[in-house]
Input
Amino acid sequence: MLGKLLDGRYRIVQVLRAGGFGETYIAEDTRRINNPRCVVKQLKPASNDPSYLQISRRLFYSEAETLQNLGDHHNQIPRLLAYFEEDQEFYLVQDFIEGNPLSTEMQLSQRWSESQVIKMLQDVLGILEFVHGYGVIHRDIKPDNLIRRYKDDRLVLIDFGAVKQVRTQIATGQTQITATVAIGTPGYMPAEQAQGKPQLNSDIYALGMIGIQALTGLYPTQLQEDRHTGEILWQQYAQVSDRLANILNQMVRYDYRRDRYQSAGEVLQALQQLVSPLLPTQPLNSEDIWGQKTNHPQNLLPQKILKTKSPSNTSSYRRKKLVAVIGLIPFILIPILLIVSLLLLAR
Output
């Protein structure tokens, strides 16, 4: 496959991933200046039967149009440059993102600060809010699918699971539109998704697990679950405020209908309240008079913050102020006298 020219335009230069459902390549676009790189995803149908290919083609083009809409309207999703069929195989061509996967920043036993985790959550939630607005579930949120883009340090969401579902359906013969394939990664995939019933907030669960991984320095598969409730047990491995822990816990609740956040917007609002306290003049992590950081405005006691000056301190302050004023007098009078003298001489 290396060196092959697809669609008379895209020359394959590297294999990124290979699997039974198709392969992913890096290619050069020979019709653009400087032959920029792009990503080409191949989808191999399981059968050459004409009726099967017709259904596969409909699935493929439907998902391709969705990806095109997403990439064209959000700069943290790779643009879909082209999609086509060649030799009864289907291909998607997307922007190649120059950057490193988030997984390279999340080494085992290395813990992130709360501010780092909050920033990461906000960045990805902004993407998910947009994607979910189209009714699209990513289905495979994990560090490997978040690329830290070199040019602006923003996270880019790649490798949508919807394409994986179509790829699986086309490759295995499950071409019914209503068929649901369990797509995802163990540890980041919630129970309902593993059962083939993904929800929009299944993506929120996965992102919450990334946040927990960042705080604990542990992979999700290393964490235990409460055998009675199914909830993830993780706080004993992290130094985290109760407020951020509560947000993460609600992101990864087992019951997606009642207990888990229902939308990315809800999580963003909770995080905004965390970093922008109810008291507008009190910034997050501001220093109080004793030089100690205060994370929670509700814990501040204003009557203790404002110290009353003693009479001796007040008198000393007034004396220093008087001396400073007297010291300025020569600097004010001398220029005035010089100006008066010059005016007299001019006459």
Observations:
- Confidence is low (pLDDT under 50) at residues 279-312.
- The longest strand covers residues 10-19.
- The two ends are 98 Å apart (CA to CA).
